[in-house]
Amino acid sequence: MIINVDKTNLNKLLGVPNRQLTIPAYQRPYAWEFEQVDELWHDIVETLGSNHFMGSVVLCSPDQARPEVIDGQQRLTTIILLLGLIRDQYQHLKPDLVGRVQQFLENAYAEPDLRFKFRPGNANAKVFTDFILCGPEDSSRRDWATVRQLDSHELNRNKRMIENTERLAGYLNQLLAASDNPLKALEQIERKIMTGLEFVVIDVPDIANAFIIFETLNDRGLALSAGDLLKNHLLAAAAKTNESVEALAEDWDKIIDNLEGGDITRFLRHYLLTQHAQVQKDDVFALFKKEVSSRGVKQLIKDLKQMSRFYGQFIKPELVSDNAVREVYQNLNTLRASMCYSALLAGSAVLNNEALRDFARLCEVLTFRYSTICSKDSKELEKVYHQAAKVLASQGAAGLVEASKILEAASPSSAEFVLAFRNQSMGRHYIVNYIFRGIENHLSPEEKTLQNTLGVHIEHIMPQTLSPAWRDTLGEDADQHALYINRWGNLTLLGGKLNIGASNMPFASKIKIYQQSKIALAHELATEECWGLEQIDERQQRLAGIAEGIWRI
Fold it and tell me: Which Pfam families match (predicted)?
């Protein structure tokens, strides 16, 4: 393998005539967060007058006029973006210096397709060219003030780039405003960018070896996710066997789209848990390399595309066409119950809607009993879900009974569940909402009072702040107010307007408000003659019994 390694700076990197650094179509769009942009800016301004090492850039140059940037896209895009902002400041401070910068952005005498010295990926190319690369006097240049008037598709694809441009412009404006000599300050920044930022450029003649270099560098500590590394590894494997790298990149983008914003590394980990008993986040890439070796790129990508579509439905249940399955997925979403996703992935691939609904409901109930109420070891529960997933993955729908028995066997007993429930306090709002809405729907299955969930709130029966009247009512028990105030037995659901009205009224006054409520949990409180610690304990015991019946295996 022939590798050219060269220490360089932006002056040399962009100074080659009629050459265009190209971001290949298969690379992900520009995605730097504010954190990385801020770090770059501070690295530049805090090291003025000295050099700063920016790391490596991996190029693949089968075509010397269009070397492809395999690693370094995010840094180069951001730095060139900043260079464009500096050029625009010269337009205001000293217009004859605009050309000095523009010569490093544009090839003056090149063919149209090589006009600019840097070409971002397809998602960002047009906006970056029209708003950044074109010079201030260019008729093709678009006014930055109109950038947020782009159609929603373009805005979404270029969101990070637009936000980071505005952030860097703000930093630059602050720097110049604070300087006694803005022109000198601007030239300092320009010189720093062009000559003071040092790179090691690794130039490899073929794409397969470029990917190997990229992977090796990132194995040594550059911050990339397992998803990024796997994509690179798959592209390298495709290049070695002369498969279409572009087609595989499109398939990978489809996988990302299917996830509906879900984290790629988490998805890959849950996918692996259908086969492997234990998978840590740091294990994901190494295990997938073995999968690629044993199954091949095409089969693995095909499977990931299918599974990513199922996973996207976990993230966005509204995508599920079957009403019953969608409802269970929404409940799992409310519970933040992602641990069961490995079993649900395996089930989604082999079960019909009715069987999937029942299996998903079993996952919901087990997660609720095991983790939410009984607070048992989550690592052990993950092993249980792996066992069920492995059965479904190996036996298909025929393994449903065995997989279900594995989950049922892990469930805490009724006695354990009721005891744990009796001692629960408010905790996270989403859990309280989930439980009380489940109980309310059980008490009033025909009512539609909870359809508009935004209008229903959690009400403390004994108020959070004790009035003198409440202190008198509680007597000596008032000292235990803090211990009982958030107990589930002291909570109910109540419509928003009624909730505001109830506030910290005496219980006798609250009864009248509860009588007006269509919510059964609140309405039944009107039968209580008084309210104190004894009533809270009794009600929580009753709710525990109801919950055990609702969330029963």
Answer: GmrSD_C (PF07510), GmrSD_N (PF03235)
